[in-house]
Amino acid sequence: MGSVTAQRATSVETGRGDRIASFVAEAGTRDYPSEIIHAAKLALVDYFACAIGGSGDPAARSTKAVAEQWKAPGAAQVIRGGKTNPAMAALVNGTMAHCQDYDDTHIGGAGHISAPVWSAALAVGGHRGSSESAVLSAFITGYEVMAHLGTGGIRGIGRNMQQCGFHPTGVNGVVGAAAASATLLGFDEERSANALSAAATSAAGFVASFGSDSKPYHAGRSAMNGILAADLAAEGFVAAKGLFEVENGMLDALIQDRRAIIPEIDFSDGWELLNNGYKPFACCRATHASITAAHKLTEKVRGRKIARVESKVHYNAPFTAGKTNPQSPLECKFSVPFCIAAALCGYKMVAADFDEPMVWDPAVRAILPKVELKPQREQPQFEAYMDVWLEDGEHLQSETKLFLGHPQNPMSTEQFQAKFMSLVEPSLGGKKAERLFATLMKFDERGALAETMNLVSA
Fold it and tell me: What pLDDT sits at residue 73?
């Protein structure tokens, strides 16, 4: 792949770190519009759906086992488990929420925000007995911080981090989690700055981990280390400042050729939470546009032999989901070619599909080596353009202009609830799952936090 030549925006202000710290410190003075509270509750519904749905996955079982072995005392609830201290609960819950790669994504490229940020807000809030409004404020604050640190779209921060081998969820998730924790601890600007900077110096997570237990661990570790950073700041820890500036900080370390266009940090310019996207398919977001295009051709290719498939995809697709011969259900989630082949064979690509029968389906495997990706430099992630040539000579075409789950093409209420029930009902049962959904949708009401934790406990 050729290097990106876009330069950094010349209008970027100095004092980015100060601006972020001020935003966190002022959280207690903000009144949130009703649409933002509603958006936060939707993110919470999706978060719990994904966490409960992933609670039996290997990475979730491993982190939960470690938490149980460490026996750290505390009042923070582990989903489908007991109680422990906030950091350990956030580790387990954040990992769970990202296990199936079914969780929400920020359209601007900042990564999976709810998994680390909701995990931190709920763990700290639950441990401290915080009010529902305080926990919501903590999540919104953490979301906005993490989104601003990773946004910019095609040539922005998050997308370029991925091309350099770094996972935005692992890198900026820890800062978002620290922001949520600092909000609940009522930090002033100085302590907020120390918490955020301590979090930033522990940022990590490699794209090379995708398709393994390490990817969901990025979200859980970010949640845990964000809480740790805030706890350190509460005890007087003084961190190095300047890590969030355009030069000589995180950005120069992670994107060393300065290829990215860095958007200004301006918290008064709308809410990034309204740019949250939700997944109808249980796999890497880079596969979704191509899956949608393939689904449009499913009936036309049924029973016919495919000679060749080409899909014009977002430039980052080969970086994040370019596996050509996946060997496990988890690896398949990070293979655009495999997901195209499976979608052409009629799989819906929901969580239940990603199991051994689909992985080794002979029909899917026959198509897989015939799929070629054509990355397009300026094509957004939500578009795909597909050509399918059949052995009988027919040439089929399909396109996706805006995949489902994008803020401008949102999942319907019925689709959203259906996803929730499909993930939660097998674990909690129908009545309990419906009760949890109703409780989460009224999370701004008193008593909802305690009821939620009671419903999701073991």
Answer: 97
